[in-house]
Amino acid sequence: MIPTLDGKRLLQDLETLAHIGLGSGAGINRIAYSPADQEARAWVEDQMRELGLKVNTDQAGNSIGVYAGQVPHLPPIAVGSHTDTVPDGGRYDGALGVVAALACVRALREAGVHLRHPVEVINFAAEEATLGGTIGSRAMAGLLHPTVVDSMTWDGRPLADHLRAAGLDPATIAQARRPKGSVAAFLELHVEQGGTLDTAGVPVGVVEGIVGIRRYTVTFQGCANHAGTTPMAARQDALVMSAPFILAVRDIAVARGIVGTIGTLRLQPGAPNVIPGLVDLSMEIRGLHEADLDGAEAELAQAAQEAGGEFRHVSRKPPVRSDPHLLEALTAACDKLGLPYQRLPSGAGHDAMCVASIAPQAMLFVPSRGGVSHSPDEYTDPESCVTGARVLLAALLKLDASLGAEA
Fold this sequence. Notes:
Elements: H1 7-18, H2 35-50, E1 54-57, E2 63-67, E3 77-82, H3 95-110, E4 119-124, H4 135-141, H5 159-165, E5 185-191, H6 196-200, E6 204-210, E7 212-221, E8 225-226, H7 238-256, E9 259-268, E10 274-275, E11 278-287, H8 290-306, E12 309-317, E13 320-321, H9 324-336, E14 341-346, H10 351-355, E15 361-366, H11 382-402
Parallel strand pairs: 3-4, 3-5, 5-15, 6-14
Antiparallel strand pairs: 1-2, 2-4, 6-13, 6-15, 7-11, 7-12, 8-10, 9-11
Helix pairs in contact: 1-3, 1-11, 3-11, 7-8, 9-11
């Protein structure tokens, strides 16, 4: 019997999740490790058990359900995403990937089909940046530094406090680590969170990779002085010094085919009647190719120096390329279903970029209307939600037949 995905049930599951953490407004508040987040995670685990999955929660709070495979000792193919949200978030970000993973296993079970590989459904913990970002997947991949539990989160409390409130032990979070090769492959369905697919009218995006992110600070030192008595020609205005660099960020990003953003700008002393004596700004660049990022970084450093600023590196996350074999499975699934697709990068970070340290990974996008995400206005139409899950199921079937065939 050929597995057939139940789109109606998928949409019902998505609607159920959308009411967990729904406040008086339109936004959803399932902040990681909060009571609402725990309620959603418990609901997902209940669905896993109803499907006959073996369920466990690891030391980071990741929920993992295993649907048995036919061949002993083969590593699982994992599918999933996350159900935590940003404050006043939308109903599709992360949640779609989790309910789609459940829908794939439901289709297999109802057809009486067990794949060669086990199938793991993973609901990752704390993906959103409210608590630092990708906490669960970083812990699983062994990428979480022990000091992270002491870092301050969105509400001014350390991550350790949030873990304890959810019944987790901050001292054991590193034990969630899984060795490389323990997962045969990981596929994640997600809404695009950008407008590329929506604008192009393309139903599916096959993600070539997740962009690298480099962050910097730049300081411009001028001289604070009285705004009313200092002639224009005699001023050393730090904000005016920074202006050419601010424009250069835009121009360099456009020329290199990447994105660049200045996210904060702090003026001192910050009074309307005082010429700014100091400007501190923070910025980032994102791109899929290291060569483009290297070139942009060199040009930005030079632009900062020419403007009289001090350019400093803060952090660097390399791009994560999707596995070619998994990309082939996704494109073949689209072809089998007669769906046009577009290959594109992900400009946002996802759990898949962390899992890439221990397993081949690839992602699938469906359109976000108007490119809106992290907002109550986030919307992906029902047909697109079901279409994405159907592609995920078809890719899962193809991967099972092609991975580890020698076993």
